[in-house]
Amino acid sequence: MWRRETGTVVRRAAALPEQATAPFVITTGSRVPRVPTEWAPHSHPLHELVWVRGGTLTSRVEKRIFTVSEGHGLWMPAGVVHGGRATAGAEFYDAFFAPDRTPFAFAEPVAIAMTPVLESLLTHLSRTDLDAAARARAESVVFDVLQPSERQFALRLPGDARIDAIAEALLDDPADCRSLEEWARALGISDRTVTRAFRHATGLSFAQWRQALRVHRALTLLSEGLDVQTVSETLGYAQPSTFIAAFRRVMGTTPGAFFDAADGTPAGVRNAVSRVQNS
Q: Which one, of 36, 34, 35, 44, lies nearest residue 13 by Cα?
């Protein structure tokens, strides 16, 4: 995972909501971590959907890191071991789904589009005064509107002993600008070995993988309110325009447009949550 922030509290998995033992198909809850919070690796007997407002959530599942920002959620199938980390002050929401009564199944963790309709329905289901018929109607609509996001925010880690040191160093410091050739010399292997290892393990070249990693980290920094120039400097870019171009290559849009879309803010208007100026 990324370098742990100072003051991070590490917790075990939170207990399932009390209603999860009731005959409900979907059970929802929320909380606001006041400090950066990390959950140790764990699993649930129920499917879990998590999402945040005003921050980001990062989850590690085997050799993949998922970074989920506002407007998106992460579906975690029942029984999948995962760890997670939420930024301080983020509104953290989760919904648990009974596997035997959920009419679809995702075999792997998947990013979910948290549309206003879906969020409103899940908030509605957090009420304790719903009768069985009202709950069943709302749950059936959730099943209709819950869809994977067009963007899947997964960064695959190499898991190759020859190059794992590169991944660890870049996770610790994404601004590390050492070239592929410099890394090869430091590790005592050939440039070609590094190139082939990254391609085989991640499907990306070294340069593409580092670029994707930096964009994942940028999602968190931008969500915390840092401006584009500060983020670009933090991630080792010489100028903001270079960072914006890299973000567009990975995400298909600029940082400002990405966060405006998540927040529903018209283009060109400063985002009240992320404070990212559209570009």
A: 44
Ranking 112-121, 157-166, 233-242, 259-268 by mean pLDDT, the lowest is 259-268
pLDDT tens string 128-174: 899 999 999 999 999 999 999 988 889 999 999 999 999 999 999 99
Residue type, 130: L
- Sheet with strand 64-69: strands edge to edge: 9-11, 37-42, 82-86, 56-61, 64-69, 154-156
From CA 80, how far away is CA 66, in angstroms rounded? 14
Distance CA 124, CA 132 (A): 13
At 195 the three-state DSSP class reads helix
Instruction: Tell me, rounded to whole angstroms, the distance of Cα 160 from its chain centroid.
Output: 23
- Which one, of 91, 105, 75, 79, lies nearest residue 13 by Cα? 79
For residues 67 and 250, the answer to whether their CB atoms sit within 8 Å is: no
Spatial neighbors of 71 by CB under 8 A, at least 6 apart, are 113, 114, 261, 262, 263
DSSP category for residue 69: E
Dihedral, 92, 97, 102, 107 alpha carbons, nearest 10: 70
Distances (CA, A) of 237 to 83, 177, 192, 240: 30, 9, 25, 7
Count of CB atoms situated within 10 Å of the CB of 160? 17
Q: Are strands 37-42 and 64-69 parallel, antiparallel or unpaired?
A: unpaired
Contact status, residue 257 vs residue 264, Cβ threshold 8 Å: no
In which residue are the tokens 């670009």 written? 232
Q: Which helix (H) or strand (E) holds 27?
A: strand 26-31
Instruction: Give alpha helix (H) positions in the chain.
Output: 116-124, 132-145, 164-172, 180-187, 191-202, 206-223, 228-234, 240-251, 255-263
| CA 177-251-219 angle, 5° bins | 65
